[in-house]
Amino acid sequence: METASGLLSSACQLAWGPVCQQLNYIRKLRENEETMQSEWRTLSSQKNDICTNMNTGQVQYGKTLTEAVKDWLKKVGEIEKRVNSLGSGGAHHMCCKGFCPNYYSRLKRSKKTMGILCEVKDLQEKGKPFAERETLFIDSLPETSSSLPVTTLHGTSAERKKEEILQCIMDPEVGKIGVYGMGGVGKTTIMRQIYNQLKEKKDDFDIVMWVTVSSVFELAKVQKTIAEQLGCPLLSSDETSRAMELSQALRRRRNFVIILDDIWDVVSLQNVGIPEPNRSNGSKVVWTTRFMDICNSMESQKEIKIEGLTDEEAWSLFKEKVGGEDIISLEIKPIADQVARECGGLPLALITVGCALRKEKQLPVWRNALHELKTSSTDQIKGMTKYVFGSLKFSYDRLSSDTIRACFLYCALYPEDSEILVNKLIEYWMAEGLIDEEGSIQTEKDKGHAYLKELKDACMIQSVRDDDECVRMHDLIRDLAINITKKQFMVKAELQLKESPKEEEWVESLERVSLMRNNIEAFKGQPNCPRLSTLLLHDNYLGRVTFSDTFFKHMHNLRVLDLSNTGIESFPDSLSDLVNLHALILTGCDKLECLPSLAKLHKLRQLELGGLSSLEELPHGLENLIKLRHLDISYGHIYRRWESFPYGVLLKMPCLEILFMQCSRWRLSYRSNANAEDNSTIGEIIIRLKKLTKFLADFTDVLAFNSFTSKARESELWRNLDYFLFTLSYKYEGHNVENEGMEKVILPVTANTMEINDCDFIQLSDIFHWDDLRQLISCRIDDCEEMKWLGKDGDIVFPSLETLSLWRLRSFKGMYKEKLHEETLKNLRNLHIFECRKLKYLIPNDLLVNNLQNLEVITIQRCEEMENIILGKASATMASLPKFKTLTLWELPELTSIYQGKLVCDSLCEIKIQGSPKLKNLPFLMNNVQLAGMSIIVSEEWWKAVEWANPQLKELLQPFFERDIGKRTRKSTRRSRWRHPMIMIEKADLHKLE
Predict the structure, then answer these.
(1) pTM as predicted
(2) How does DSSP assign 509-575, residue by residue?
(3) Domain ranges in the chain?
(4) Is domain 156-305 in CATH 3.40.50.300, yes or no?
(5) Mean predicted confidence (pLDDT) in 95-101
(6) 280 vs 491 pLDDT, higher one
(7) Could you name the domain of life of the organism this protein comes from (predicted)?
């Protein structure tokens, strides 16, 4: 019974379970429907978010969905249909005309609802990973993974440039980098290696792209190239819309590097669709170009110039292309070396010429190749015209105007590897008419500098030094220019010629001829060159130079004639008929005794007769040169003075802007000029030259100079003069003046530099008014044997002076004798003392503390009795020179002390001491030691013995001193070029005073 009862109970339980479940379906229908609708809304929102990301990726980036996402979306769509098919239910769940529930219908609907609910929750879980965009699509923006083919970099210089560019790319502060250099120098080769290296690393940048732009920029083509590498089909045909698509695609990336190779014009990154690279997005844009101005216009944050190979690197590459060292016999080696040098370190040329001579063993072929390269006639060297000159000519053709191209070609008139003086080159351009006359010489020169900058930016011309005073042409660039102009130019410069070209070489088509820097003694014949506009014959040094009477007869178009520094003694009369001449340059022709009349040369702008020490008289016809702007009659024979200069002629030159007559046959006097129609003094005539901007002259004495200065102050002369240099004697020449010794020099109001030589005075106030010295920036005093002090008690001395140099002052005792004014020397930066043999101390302590806070450099040499540099007991435990950088002490045998106290010099970076055995300690303290750039040049023995105010500082600076000081060459203590008693007063370019 019990067993039967247990079985019955179990059976009832098993039967009741399903029944309860069925009853729950019926009872919880509404609750199940609400739960299902809530979960469905969640799934629907999830689908909408995924679809938004999906649409962005598909429409804007052309991406493809994964099969898993497609299947999930399909199932969500099916579920949505099933949810919608349920409807609201309601009446379908009632029977007996709505008075009784339809339990079967409710059971069926509830089961269906719970089935949909389970599937909705399952789809929610499966859809969670798709919230991240990266999981929606096949591959994350496909990109090409292949590397670019590259050649090996030759030499360490190219490797260094490569590393420099890579460092800039990795620098977070640099977003845009311009790599520039002349054609064929290897810019693309270096960048291809960098591209491949960045592609291999993959960790630093999300995508690395190479885009070749080339000489003809096509925006649509560049956009297409970028899009293909992004795997982003461009859906729009409008360039602006395409740029927006690319920008969005690139912004989606973590970061990117885009290399734009061979840019010839400014490329707008915005127009292409490249987001501006910056620190926040970590992206980079690097471009290669031949033009520096493109880097500036595209606002590069770093510009890197690629230079040619060194001689050693060039030789290595050349040997490789020729076929190895075994090909080059001992006989060929010297010629092969010259051939390689003629390629000027340009890899493209070295490869081209090397391949053309590959495995060539015949000496005549090598000699011919060298001749071809030297004479710029390289048609016989295979590939030179097509590859090298063809490449370089692209740069020439892309110059902005015919005028700039003509200016470039003009540079080919100079010898190979020649340093070209910028100022002289621009003067040639001006005289040739390549620069339009625009009112003043300076304005035209400024335009010339702008032309030159374009040529330098295009790498067609190279700067020689940082001062921009000289430029040069690369050998192959010069060859290109000569190749272009071979029918218009004859260039035989610096070829050691002893004879002038034969008459048949002077063809009618010639426009410019350069025979400079030869040894030609005679210019013969009657050249028929009606188009010739420039003739450069200067620097034919050796012997006597002559011209045939008819040499200039058929050169009526000549505008520039330069015969400076030649041994010419006289000119043929045919010179007088060069009516189109704009520039006649005869500087340094010290054998020239006479000149024919210049009366017909009405168009002459520039006449340079400086250094004509043998000239017996000025040429006839100067009064007819009404357009003359530049007249130089300086450095004649000062001991063969002519009776008078025809200063009245100057009044017939209303365009005169430059007048150089220093160290000439004439000195300006206070007397009236006998040649002047109105009995004016020479100074008064000069003052009437309203356009004068540069004026160099000598005055007979202080009285003449003061007379001129006083009258000039009443005119606009000082305001107009950009540069002047006046020298005057402090001796009076034969006129009676009461208290001549009391006459003081009146300085021009714009004078900023002065040099005094061999004058007798005790202190400067003896010959100057202190107020006149306030504006001076630089002052040098030489060989004034009576001078003892700069100034006396209370004087305001040199408040603006930055550089003071004192040379060979036999009686000099020190800077000041008494108490100083607070403005004295308050701006002094450089103090140089040489061979003041009786000087015992230099700087009073109160001058150091109160006035010299801007001092940067002290140089003292050969002051044999100097004991102290700074005299007087320190008023405090320490003083400070916050800007002091350099101390140089040479041959001061009695020097025992620099300063009695401690001297804080936080900017000190250079110490040079020699020949000061009694100096046992250095007073310097440095609170902020800047070890970068520190230099200490002393003997090892002295360094070991000397004591510092701070012993730890000596130990810290130990690695920075250099030994063997005795082997170093001392700075030259040159003597002034003004050897007679003289005061030189100048308005100079303050930048050059640095």
Answers:
(1) 0.68
(2) T--EEE--SS---EE-S--B-TT--EEE-----SS-BEE-TTTTTB-TT--EEE-TT--B----GGG
(3) 17-135, 156-305, 311-480, 487-628, 753-967
(4) yes
(5) 49
(6) 491
(7) Eukaryota
